[in-house]
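Narrative of accomplishments. A recurring question from our advisory board has been how the design workflow behaves on a single, concrete structure rather than in aggregate. To address it, we present the structure tokens for one chain from the evaluation set, followed by the sequence designed for it. No filtering or post-editing was applied between the two.
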């Protein structure tokens, strides 16, 4: 995988990609369209995520963007155009909403950590994208909102990811008012992990991601899957599941190596097995 480069003779690609140090950057490159999640953009993102999931060189995935808007959510022009269809757009709306839901679940189920790198505004399904990622780092000027209520379209699907990241009353505040919150408030709410000055964003994000990338890929896969599965379980079931996960993890080659390395005061040599 290598960086995508545009030229003057062809339209700029929707996504730019770069792999460095086990960290795979996916950058949405439609600033003139506010990096909206059109059907085309979602297909492109899904395809890159699938390729990254299968590439053993990729250990951590970043999703970022170009321009002042991280992601403006669904492409409202695309949705509006569908009203001219014979069914008033119903089939198109069903397809696009299912596509978006599948993309968000793909991120959650991906066997590798996914980090949102937020510069600018993340609104509606763009906020949903941030919430769906495992971690999120934002600049100090980033803002977040679920403003569907302002245009008569409640952010119901963004609500699913949002309500799994922030407390119910805070989620409802965002959903009912449609007002923006700044990066500091988003961190307080639990929507993002860290706030970084824009000038240092790339440097900090790469270092942050490389720390995670240095771990055993098998261990990260086990842990991410277990984290999301146990969230949906009653307490007793969650402990039973987590205990069995620990047993299976202990039998893995990397657990044996990691514990031995710790006891011997040396750096572990992961085999991802």
């Amino acid at each position: 995988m290598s960086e995508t480069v545009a030229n003057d003779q062809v339209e700029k690609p929707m996504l730019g990609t770069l792999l460095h140090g086990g960290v795979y950057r996916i950058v949405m490159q439609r600033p003139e369209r506010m990096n909206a999640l059109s059907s085309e953009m979602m297909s492109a993102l899904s395809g890159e995520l699938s390729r990254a999931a299968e590439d053993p060189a990729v250990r951590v995935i970043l999703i970022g963007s170009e321009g002042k808007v991280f992601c403006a959510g669904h492409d409202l022009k695309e949705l509006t155009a569908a009203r001219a269809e014979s069914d008033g757009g119903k089939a198109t709306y069903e397809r696009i909403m299912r596509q978006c839901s599948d993309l968000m679940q793909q991120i959650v189920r991906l066997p590798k950590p996914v980090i949102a790198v937020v510069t600018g505004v993340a609104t509606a399904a763009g906020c949903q994208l941030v919430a769906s990622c495992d971690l999120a780092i934002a600049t100090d000027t980033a803002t977040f909102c679920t403003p569907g209520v302002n245009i008569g379209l409640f952010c119901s699907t963004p609500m699913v990811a949002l309500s799994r990241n922030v407390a119910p009353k805070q989620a409802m505040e965002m959903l009912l008012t449609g007002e923006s919150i700044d990066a500091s408030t988003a961190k307080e709410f639990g929507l993002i992990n860290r706030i970084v000055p824009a000038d240092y964003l790339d440097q900090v994000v790469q270092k942050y991601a490389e720390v995670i990338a240095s771990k055993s890929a098998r261990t990260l896969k086990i842990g991410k899957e277990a984290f999301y599965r146990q969230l949906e379980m009653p307490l007793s079931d969650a402990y039973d599941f987590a205990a069995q996960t620990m047993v299976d993890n202990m039998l893995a080659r990397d657990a044996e190596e990691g514990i031995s390395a710790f006891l011997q005061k040396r750096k572990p040599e992961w085999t991802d097995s």
